[in-house]
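so i finally got all the pieces together for this one. its three components total, 844 residues if u count the protein bits. some of the lines might not be protein, just check the labels. i wanna see the whole assembly predicted at once instead of chain by chain like last time, that was a mess tbh
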Amino acid sequence: MKRKEIRLSGAGGQGMILAGIILAESSLFDPELYVVQTQSYGPESRGGASRAEVIVSREPIDYPKVVKADILVCLTAESLEKYGQEVAEGGVVIADDSFAGEDYIPPEGVDFYSLPIIAKAREEIGLEVTANMVALGAVDHFLSEIDSECLEQAIEKRVPGGTEEKNMAAFRAGQQLLAARV
Amino acid sequence: MAEDIDRYLRQDKLPHIWCPGCGHGTIMANMLRGFARSGLDQDKTVVVSGIGCSGRASGYLDFDTLHVTHGRALTFATGIKMANPELTVVVVTGDGDGAAIGGNHLIHACRRNIDIKVVLFNNSIYGMTAGQFSPMTPTGATATTAPYGNIDQNFDLCELTRSAGATFVARGAAQHPRQLIKIFQEGFAHRGLTFIEAITQCPVNYGRRNKLGGARDMLNWQKEHIINQKKYESLSAEERQDKTPSGILYQDEREEYTEKYEKIIATARGSEN
Amino acid sequence: MKNKAGEKIKEKEARTMLLQGDEAVVEGGLVAGASFFAGYPITPASEIAEGFAEKLPALGGKFIQMEDEIASMGCVIGASLAGEKAITATSGPGFSLKQENLGLGIMVEAPCVVVNVQRVGPSTGLPTSPSQGDVMQARWGTHGDHPIIALSPSTVKETIDLTIESFNMAEKYRIPVILLLDEIVGHMREKVRIPSPEEVEIVERKRPRLEDREEFYPYLETEDHIPPMPDYGQGFRYHSTGLFHDKTGFPRGKTEDARRLMDRLMAKIDENLDDIILLEDDLKGDEEIVVLSYGSTARSAISAVVRARQEGLKAGWVKLKTVWPFAEDFVADLADRVQEIIVPELNRGQLIGEVEKAACGRARISGIHRYDGTIIPPAEILAKIKEVG
């Protein structure tokens, strides 16, 4: 298997890095899967741009950063503008529908999904901060390397105590977003 | 003063390098008399010193001794005490080493109330480097780096360390050996950050330049101006103007730092089980 | 492993975890027997302090957050002399502040580990971005001639291994060892297996026998140049100083003592290069071009060389794990066999100077340099291989 590159991008405070860590941690259940997770963030804890990258592979991973994403998630217009063209052929771009409309033209051979990620988190779950888990649910749809169950276990383990149920509901809502669309 | 202090000295390293008339030898000897009376174990005592005239003391003292970088003795001492709280840890420092370059470490060691005995030899000048002004050089005095008079304000180190959290604060002077021995004896027995300011004279690099006379004149000055706290308190505000109180100025019990950390260890171990 | 009170430190079993490089320093340190940490908060190294603050007390070890970086370095040396396996961690600005006390640690021969998770400098620079800009500072940061060991990992797994090596070398050679991470390695997460202490070799400093107290020379010139070291409080009543000293530990003010001590301090390292210099390579013998790198940059280099090979180019890679002392003999031999050595670095060219010195004109040397907080992508190295090939 060739390496699969996933880039999760948004603003600081949207939990993109936590989503990246959960994604990476879900690989622990498969002893033969290699994983590297990196991040980039500004000095501020909230606001500013934030980006997590995860690479999974059946072979040892040398270069630890995303070259061209196989899966790109964008929760802000800025992140879509910045990374929207750095996507591999056959890859997917998942962006929040609050800003991702007709302006964005994905590269050749890239599928684009404009989904109500933040709206789902805010309205259905009642917590906008769970948008990262909704996004993860959407990513799960394209991630054949990792079982959904492993992702669920990783979420249980990482999210703050007492919020497991809401986060899990958000993750499932994300899965359904695509089940309905694809 | 019948204590045998020879056993605490590395005889082969003597005579010391301090100048004739310097008070450092007197302070060191009385520190050792106080140590002898405290009954502490010589083999379980570490002396750490920094740079300057005071810094040389560690070489003469027959303990585990460590002579470190300028101003940083307290940081090394903190590591030693944290590593092995059973050890008695003494820091010998000066007014430049301890109050200028090492001033930040001094207030933070006080804040932690870690059981370290800080002995600050205050000779009001950088003696070893031949007479630059220190934070304890009186305002108006001259020094090689204050040829037109020192415009800096001094610290009151006893007030400073007390407000920073030291639980034993005392001031003595070379001229008052009996009081010094008592201060050292009780200071060594205290558990917590112990700060002892020992006023000493530097006739060569401070006295001469400021026309204060020789060692004897400077000791006479100490006699007149550094007075017992009780006597000091009986004076009017006007009479206090040119006087400095001496003795054990403050002592309190507050939980010591390494004891607090032992509780952290107990908590961490408990939460593991 | 035992702590100060002689209690056995709870042995940890091997386990597989997703860890950051910074967290791997903590895990590797604990496997090596780290029992003391002193530090000061700084990006991107604070996770190391946080990890030790949480984990040391449960094992009977000690953690202290000091008032500044200088104090942290002093504290670690003090703890080392009192018998602990001590470590501190910082980044560029803090590493600058630690240099004077680091020199004292070298002079009094206090084993300890100093981690520097490099960020872009000088000054406050780019606090959250990677750099390899402190390579020369690791070698020459403290004033005066002196020996130094500096190791640099490129993966989280290597961070565990080299943290253990750092402690082992510090104990074995009585010297502060610098562990140079960069922000990429420090913050990246990888799946790693943490070994149990039983699986790895753990070195303890040579201690004198208590019966040798009467005639004890703390800085004795032994055959291996490494004098046995007692813990404070054992009754040796010995003296250590930053001044040049003789075997007694006391300064005599004689020039011959300065020369003898410096020569011995250097010999500790110079006579053990085979033990200290760690590197990995993938050389098949037909190489015309070799990419020599260290730290996170080595990952880009390996990626580029693998692709170059696939395209039929005769390329190979060398990854230095020990940066200092520099692998001079290895590079000199390499320069005899290849046409070009490419040295990618996240700086304006630091270790490349050592490569040039060692190659001494027998191979062409070229660099790839980035100092803007971004890492060198494999494509850039591949392009360079093609350009020079």
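The helical segments of chain A are 16-25, 77-83, 117-125, 131-140, 148-158, 164-181.
Chain A touches chain C through 23 residues (CB under 8 Å).
anyway lmk what u think
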